[in-house]
């Protein structure tokens, strides 16, 4: 026979709800691990007193009773597994696995039996229902009635609030059956009663969750938080884990108590109790017990008189009473040397602590995620800035946690930690578009030098734009001076086009119509060549002088070979980083020497640009650009004149005036070209209007 039996998808009944997990039976005992909380119930084989097999709602169930009265119920077994379990119990636990069916008659009268921590309501020899007395929160009595109230479980969709038992009177003298029933319940119930003096009291401790200042009274079986508004009584059996976490400022400490079930304040549930301590605060503590009792109960873990830091005393007392280990951060260290990472979860900023077996975030809201419940993690680019990234965790149940606004310097440390813990990384290999960002994260020292290079590049771009602006021709200056009027001209054109549509427009309107299209042609000319200007800037004239280098680049070119010789085999990236460090460490006098060289190079560049702008090649390019603009202007005028001649027959006087209107760019230095331009205009108009006579042209020129 096998030494162990394992069952998956087994449900443990706890306070009315079914918690799924894994059950393992071995020679040493029975172990159940809760899949949700990770809590482990360990029952030693020597403690088992009885095993019962019975049919339940989820198939078949196993009920185990221990010698100290505790009851454990597990459901989800198949009927075929009974023989295997029965043989295992006989061979390793020397117990007979009994089969007992529940009574389903529906009767509401019977006999109550108290066995250990279990109340059983039986009809005949068959149990109808059983109530673990540890679930009872209050017991009240009436004339012939006993009422039991229960602790509420937030995980259960439907909770049992209370049960009332009618106890008939008996003829026995001196014995009240109602009081006897209540005493049996209270002796085993989880009713918190502050009887006697507290072992010790901690005054005015700062509590972050729930927020406020509380006096903490330590009793043998529970913890009492007494505040100005609320009181909480926390049984030690509900404490799941203890954490002691150093704050990032190295001056404060968090002490976190994980609770299951949580404490309640109205509709709010607190799964974590978080205390904040200053490292500098000390205390001298005296336990309200004699030395023999302290030695007998705590076995050297506590002494009657203790002194030290306040957080050490609180954690030491809690560890001894709860009998659980205190979890502290492992060997993780962030970029700043702290054992935590500053980040944001939901709407609040807090600290994320990578532990040896999970992550914990404090403090609003507190979150604890174990490694064994993580499906995968993901490193994502920050939504607002590239200076930070997001760390996403998705559990096997599908719950997703996003810790945002993490400084990018923390990426390397966090990635190495996650990789060492062998967690599944969703974007291993890095997503497209994020590679450059995360490659930079790997070496955070480069960031300072990169910022300096970016500043130098920006200064170079500004100098280049200024040089290009100074070398541009007068035509571009005219365009720039005309730009502010574009909006007004567009409004005027829209108004004129509406006016020309009516047949009652006069000579004044036609004159305005002839003048406006000339400006419209100019606006079209302004907008289109700009694309060509930007395109022409991409392909620069090879004859143009090269712009000067900055002081840093002059020094780098002169020192590059020396750096290579001092550091053989250095890469280009490392060389740039090393050069940035040397430049920053350089004295002000040496930098001024290179600044003077850069200033001399800038003067030479400006002198060369002036000569280049006066050269024939540059002048030829300007004349070509000017000629193209004139051709477009003439074509635009001809199209507009042809359109206006069809809409009105009284255009010929205005046409002469439009011929006389010329922009600065249209007027040629050669006066003889005016007649040729007029002839070209008349040919473009065609048969719509006769060519103007020499007298008209003379009067128009006047």
TrEMBL record:
Ranges for domain HMG box: 545-613
PROSITE patterns linked to this entry: HMG_BOX_2
Annotated transmembrane regions: none
GO molecular-function terms, A-Z: DNA binding; histone binding; nucleosome binding
GO biological process, one term: DNA repair
Regions of compositional bias (Acidic residues) in chain numbering: 474-496
Alphabetical UniProt keywords: Chromosome, DNA damage, DNA repair, DNA replication, DNA-binding, Nucleus, Transcription, Transcription regulation
Subcellular location: Nucleus, Nucleolus; Nucleus; Chromosome
CC annotations in GO: FACT complex; nucleolus
Biased composition (Basic residues): 517-531, 621-630
Compositionally biased spans, kind Low complexity: 497-507, 644-660
Superkingdom per UniProt: Eukaryota
Residue span of region Disordered: 458-551, 586-702
Compositional bias of kind Basic and acidic residues: 532-544, 586-620, 631-642
DNA-binding region: 545-613
A Pfam short name: POB3_N
UniProt function note: Component of the FACT complex, a general chromatin factor that acts to reorganize nucleosomes. The FACT complex is involved in multiple processes that require DNA as a template such as mRNA elongation, DNA replication and DNA repair. During transcription elongation the FACT complex acts as a histone chaperone that both destabilizes and restores nucleosomal structure.
Similarity comment: Belongs to the SSRP1 family.
Name of the protein this chain belongs to: FACT complex subunit SSRP1
Species assigned in the record: Panurus biarmicus
Gene name, Swiss-Prot/TrEMBL: Ssrp1
């Amino acid at each position: 026979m096998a030494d162990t039996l394992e069952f998956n998808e087994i449900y443990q009944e706890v306070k009315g709800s079914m918690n799924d997990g894994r059950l393992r039976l071995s020679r040493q005992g029975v172990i159940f691990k809760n899949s949700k909380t990770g809590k482990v119930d360990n029952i030693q084989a020597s403690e088992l007193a009885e095993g019962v097999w019975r049919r339940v709602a989820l198939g078949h169930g196993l009920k185990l009773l221990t010698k100290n009265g505790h009851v454990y119920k597990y459901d989800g077994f198949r009927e075929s597994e009974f023989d295997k379990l029965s043989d295992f119990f006989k061979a390793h636990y020397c117990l007979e696995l009994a089969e007992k069916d529940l009574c389903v008659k529906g009767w509401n009268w019977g006999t109550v039996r108290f066995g250990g921590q279990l109340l059983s309501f039986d009809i005949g020899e068959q149990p109808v229902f059983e109530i673990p007395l540890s679930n009872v929160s209050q017991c009240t009595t009436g004339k012939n009635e006993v009422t039991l109230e229960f602790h509420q479980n937030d995980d259960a969709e439907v909770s049992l609030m209370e049960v009332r038992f009618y106890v008939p009177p008996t003829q026995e003298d001196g014995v009240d059956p109602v009081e006897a029933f209540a005493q049996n319940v209270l002796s085993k119930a989880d009713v918190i009663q502050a009887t006697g003096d507290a072992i010790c009291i901690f005054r005015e401790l700062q509590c972050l969750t729930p927020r406020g200042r509380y006096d903490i009274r330590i009793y043998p079986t529970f913890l009492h938080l007494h505040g100005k508004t609320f009181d909480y009584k926390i049984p030690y059996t509900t404490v799941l884990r203890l954490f002691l976490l150093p704050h990032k400022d190295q001056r404060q400490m968090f002490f976190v108590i994980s609770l299951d079930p949580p404490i309640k304040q109205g509709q709010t549930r607190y799964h974590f109790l978080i205390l904040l301590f200053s490292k500098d605060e000390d205390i001298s503590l005296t336990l309200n017990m004699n030395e023999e009792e302290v030695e007998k109960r705590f076995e050297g873990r506590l002494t009657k008189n203790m002194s030290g830091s306040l957080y050490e005393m609180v954690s030491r007392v809690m560890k001894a009473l709860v009998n659980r280990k205190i979890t502290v951060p492992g060997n993780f260290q962030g970029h700043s040397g702290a054992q935590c990472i500053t980040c944001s979860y939901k709407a609040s900023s807090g600290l994320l602590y990578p532990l040896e077996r999970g992550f914990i975030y404090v403090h609003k809201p507190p979150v604890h995620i174990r490694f064994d419940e993580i499906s995968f993690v993901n490193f994502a680019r920050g939504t607002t800035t590239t200076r930070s990234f997001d760390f996403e965790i998705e559990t096997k149940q599908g719950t997703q946690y996003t810790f945002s606004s993490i400084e990018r310097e923390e990426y390397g440390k966090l990635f190495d930690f996650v990789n060492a813990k062998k967690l599944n990384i969703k974007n291993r290999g890095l997503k497209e578009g994020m590679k450059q960002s995360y490659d930079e994260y790997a070496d955070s020292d480069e960031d300072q030098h990169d910022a300096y290079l970016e500043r130098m590049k920006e200064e170079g771009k500004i100098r280049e734009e200024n040089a290009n602006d100074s070398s541009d021709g007068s035509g571009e200056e005219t365009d720039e001076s005309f730009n502010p009027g574009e909006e007004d001209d567009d409004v005027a054109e829209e108004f004129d086009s509406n006016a020309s549509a009516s047949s009652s427009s006069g000579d004044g309107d036609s004159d305005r119509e002839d003048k406006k299209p000339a400006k419209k042609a100019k606006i079209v000319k302004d907008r289109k060549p700009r694309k060509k200007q930007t395109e022409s800037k991409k392909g620069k004239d090879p004859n143009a002088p090269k712009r000067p280098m900055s002081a840093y680049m002059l020094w780098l070119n002169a020192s590059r070979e020396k750096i290579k010789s001092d550091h053989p085999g250095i890469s280009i990236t490392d060389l740039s980083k090393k050069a940035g460090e040397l430049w920053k460490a350089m004295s002000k006098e040496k930098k001024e020497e290179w600044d003077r060289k850069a200033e001399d190079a800038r003067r030479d560049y400006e002198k060369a640009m002036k000569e280049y702008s006066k050269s024939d090649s540059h002048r030829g390019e300007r004349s070509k650009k000017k000629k193209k603009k004139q051709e477009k202007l003439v074509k635009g005028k001809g199209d507009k004149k042809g359109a206006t001649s069809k809409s009105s027959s009284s255009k010929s006087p205005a046409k002469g005036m439009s011929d006389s209107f010329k922009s600065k760019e249209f007027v040629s230095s050669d006066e003889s070209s005016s007649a040729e331009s007029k002839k070209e205009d008349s040919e473009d108009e065609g048969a719509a209007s006769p060519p103007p006579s020499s007298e008209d042209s003379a009067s128009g020129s006047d």
